[in-house]
């Protein structure tokens, strides 16, 4: 039987809860199959030179964790730089926030090459390799250049923007060509697949072989939508445990006279947090009956603090929250509770269950697991309502949520008002329909459907030669 090798920038001990959707999801997926999980340890090692690292391995149940620290220069250029100041904003449609700095790309290539060199000696012939996310797009190219012939799949957790936005990326042809070193490319939604295909056909002159297969650069790859899910049973179990129950009861007691609304996000400009606060302000203005009765709890957990756009966002948000509390708050009621800390995962289900309205309103999001967690946390007899941005990947699946446009402040205020006053029967019906989708397309379905597709042989006529060791991609011109 083949062994599963997962590679991602962020990883966590799969037996322990972690914040951040990717680490949570991969931990849960690997818990089931066992295997090897390779990635960054999360540590920046002052002693280390750029492009160098020492491999550390340890066992976590059935999963072997193999990690490397990053040198400070690599952390700055690869993680904070190319990954989070170039690829993250561009793939979230925010060209205005991208910082196209030449040294970032050098660091990105250097770390991908180092990952490949450290991973290769750990691989066995029968392994199947599954690489995750935008930090590691060129990893398969680097592995193939070192002689790796195993099947390699790639899953992108963030959205794919339309071709003309991608084409604004100075090295877009170099980056997008790297996808062809994979046997399968998984994306979160059909919209992402459509953008990816259009880019490859129009900008890379790829040939469409049908059935999701594309040919270019003398190779073939397959692309498909594999929307990521959550581990429903595990999350329900977490919801029944003491921490979650206590969290829920404490909140209900403290706010017994209020209707609660909740947002839980990393403090990221893609999550539409200021737009949400403005919509809540509009709700209080347009529907004054909610004053003294509605309270919005906003968890905005720290994320990527050293990237400038994130620091700017924090300042903007704190101004907005202070403004709304100053203008509308009273001695016995504050409209908004803003918390800039990570909430322990074991408390998330209790928090979600205590509130009447879950606000998941990103401007763009690959999927958004909080949307699914909110639904699963609800009491089916008296469920809360999910207000969901149509621009989250999750919206393609969760059509029974109240879908909103986060740029439309008044429209969002109206939807929140509808959610706050939705009759029980409608809440129950929507919750039932959402649960069905979430349970059918859970984390295990996601893992299995991706890996089944990766294992499926290419049709005979189109079968590509086993990946020969090849030269790595030409180094792109510095910008
Ligand atoms: O690792 P960080 O820089 O701390 O960021 C946390 C993760 O954020 C992103 O998550 C994405 O993956 C989720 C699961 O598929 C998805 O629901 C969400 O929409 C995405 O934003 C990022 O893509 C991960 O690599 C990060 O680890
Ligand atoms: O303070 C927090 C904030 C988030 N999360 C978890 O982190 C994940 C966030 O994943 P999502 O896909 O919503 O967004 P991402 O942060 O990965 O972009 C979810 O499982 C949340 O429950 C958490 O445990 N504590």
UniProtKB/TrEMBL annotation:
Pfam family, one: Glyco_transf_20
Pathway membership: Glycan biosynthesis; trehalose biosynthesis
Enzyme class: transferase
GO terms classed as biological process: trehalose biosynthetic process
UniProt-listed InterPro entries: Glyco_trans_20, Trehalose_OtsA
This protein's record includes keyword Glycosyltransferase: yes
Positions of transmembrane segments: none
Catalysed reaction, written as an equation: D-glucose 6-phosphate + UDP-alpha-D-glucose = alpha,alpha-trehalose 6-phosphate + UDP + H(+)
Keyword check for Glycosyltransferase: yes
Subunit structure of this chain's protein: Homotetramer.
Protein name as catalogued: Trehalose-6-phosphate synthase
Organism: Melaminivora alkalimesophila
């Amino acid at each position: 039987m083949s062994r599963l090798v997962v590679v991602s920038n962020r990883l966590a001990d799969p037996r322990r809860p972690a914040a951040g959707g990717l680490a949570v999801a991969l931990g849960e997926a690997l818990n089931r199959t066992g295997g090897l999980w390779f990635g960054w340890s999360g540590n920046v090692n002052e002693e280390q030179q750029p492009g160098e690292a020492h491999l550390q391995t340890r066992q976590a149940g059935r999963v072997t964790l193999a990690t490397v620290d990053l040198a400070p220069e690599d952390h700055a250029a690869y993680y904070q730089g190319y990954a989070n100041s170039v690829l993250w904003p561009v793939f979230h449609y925010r060209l205005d926030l991208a910082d196209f700095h030449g040294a970032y790309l050098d660091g990105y290539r250097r770390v991908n090459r180092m990952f490949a060199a450290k991973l290769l000696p750990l691989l066995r012939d029968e392994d199947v390799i599954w690489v995750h996310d935008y930090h590691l797009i060129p990893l398969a190219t680097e592995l193939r250049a070192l002689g790796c012939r195993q099947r390699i799949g790639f899953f992108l957790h963030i959205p794919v923007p339309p071709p003309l936005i991608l084409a604004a990326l100075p090295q877009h042809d170099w980056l997008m060509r790297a996808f062809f070193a994979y046997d399968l490319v998984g994306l979160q939604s059909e919209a992402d697949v459509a953008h990816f295909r259009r880019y490859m056909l129009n900008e890379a002159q790829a040939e469409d072989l049908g059935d999701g297969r594309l040919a270019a650069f003398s190779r073939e790859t397959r692309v498909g939508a594999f929307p990521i899910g959550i581990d429903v049973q595990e999350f329900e179990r977490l919801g029944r445990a003491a921490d979650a129950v206590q969290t829920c009861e404490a909140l209900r007691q403290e706010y017994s006279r209020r209707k609660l609304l909740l947002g839980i996000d990393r403090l990221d400009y893609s999550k539409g947090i200021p737009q949400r606060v403005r919509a809540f302000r509009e709700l209080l203005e347009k529907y004054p009956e909610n004053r003294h009765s509605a309270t919005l709890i906003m968890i905005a957990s720290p994320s990527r603090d050293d990237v400038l756009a994130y620091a700017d966002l924090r300042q903007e948000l704190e101004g907005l929250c202070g403004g709304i509390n100053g203008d509308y708050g009273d001695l016995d009621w504050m409209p908004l509770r803003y918390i800039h800390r990570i909430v322990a995962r074991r408390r998330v289900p209790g928090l979600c269950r205590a509130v009447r309205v879950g606000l998941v309103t990103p401007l763009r999001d690959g999927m958004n697991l909080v949307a699914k967690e909110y639904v699963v946390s609800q009491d089916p007899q008296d469920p809360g309502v999910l207000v969901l941005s149509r621009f989250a990947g999750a919206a393609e699946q969760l059509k029974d949520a109240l879908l909103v446009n986060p740029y439309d402040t008044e429209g969002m205020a109206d939807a929140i008002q509808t959610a706050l006053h939705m009759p029980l029967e409608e809440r129950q019906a929507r919750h039932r329909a959402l649960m069905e989708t979430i349970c059918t397309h859970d984390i295990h379905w996601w893992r299995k459907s991706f890996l089944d597709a990766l294992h499926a042989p290419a049709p005979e006529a189109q079968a590509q030669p086993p990946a020969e060791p090849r030269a790595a991609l030409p180094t792109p011109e510095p910008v």
